[in-house]
Amino acid sequence: MAFIAQQFINGLMLGSIYALMAIGLALIFGILRLINFAHGELLMVGPFFTFALVKAGLPFGLAAVLAVVLTAGVGILMERLAYRPLRGAPDVTLLLTSLAVSIFLQNSVILTYGGETKPFKGPEFLDQRLQLGGGVGVSTIDLFIMVAALVLLVLFTLFVTRTMLGVSMRATAENLLAAQLVGININRVITTAFVVGAGMAAVAGVLWGVRIGRIDPIMGFIPVLKAFVATVIGGFGSIPGAVLGAYVLGFLEIFLASWLPAGTTGYRDAIVFALLIVVLLVRPQGILGSSEREGV
């Protein structure tokens, strides 16, 4: 029983990281029908901004907050310079553009900081381990990840349901042309979506970097793939579906790693992507998705 409880906590932690990433992917796709593969580089840029600011002498907490703000700025520039001029272009054009932006950001960081892995250490209190009883424990960084994800998910839900800008975002995702006709400022809505997505990706990147103790220029590649799988499982374009898919994927990975025989844990990702194929075959719109275009 203690083993299952421990793995449940680990699954919550991993699902929380994927959820923070998946929201940004689903949000942009819901509005622009764009699969933004450069979103993974926003996860990478956040901790590198933090790394640079800490080296400049700022305390880690302040550096992390400023890094989230700076990463949101990168999201704005990404939308303004790369995607806005191509709005209305064929989907394949936007997809290729997102790959180009991803490569640009990766190489910019490599040219600035080098391609080697760098140590990334958070405050000392995040290195503690709390015992919950019965042989079950949780590290303070894992607890911080789960709480941060919960708080951000609640704040995001309140934003899209209780504010005029959030309602405008949902309306734009439902029907962009109709939103324009009723006077919604589409550019403002899309910019906000990129800011929110980039900020959450930066938070995920900083927390994940602290947990694993290192950062590198390609650290966003695997998480964005996993977030993509999560959004497909949950329902692409559906924020609740993306969050649900993220936690399903997190639990699945953790329990597979625990239950697979020794020497076969390397097949974990293969099983995850096999699940993706099954979902696409049985329910292409995902668990909470709709066969029609659906808003956030």
Tell me the structural class: mainly alpha
Percent of sequence in beta strands:
under 5%
The mean pLDDT is 87
How far apart are the first and last residues' alpha carbons, in Å?
37 Å
Strand and helix order:
HHHHEEEHHHHEHHH
**Uncertain residue segments:** none
Radius of gyration from the alpha-carbon trace, in angstroms: 19 Å
Number of helices: 11
The residue fraction in helices comes out at over 70%
Q: Tally of extended strands?
A: 4
Largest sheet: 2 strands, antiparallel
Biggest sheet, strands in spatial order?
1-4
Give the overall silhouette. Answer: globular
Walk me through this protein's architecture:
- This protein is mostly helical and 296 residues long.
- The chain has helices at 2-32, 39-55, 60-83, 91-113, 140-162, 164-174, 176-181, 186-212, 221-234, 239-259, 268-282; strands at residues 118-119, 129-133, 136-139, 214-215.
- β2 (129-133) and β3 (136-139) form a beta hairpin.
- The two termini are 37 Å apart.
- It is 72% helix and 4% strand.
- It has a domain at 15-220.
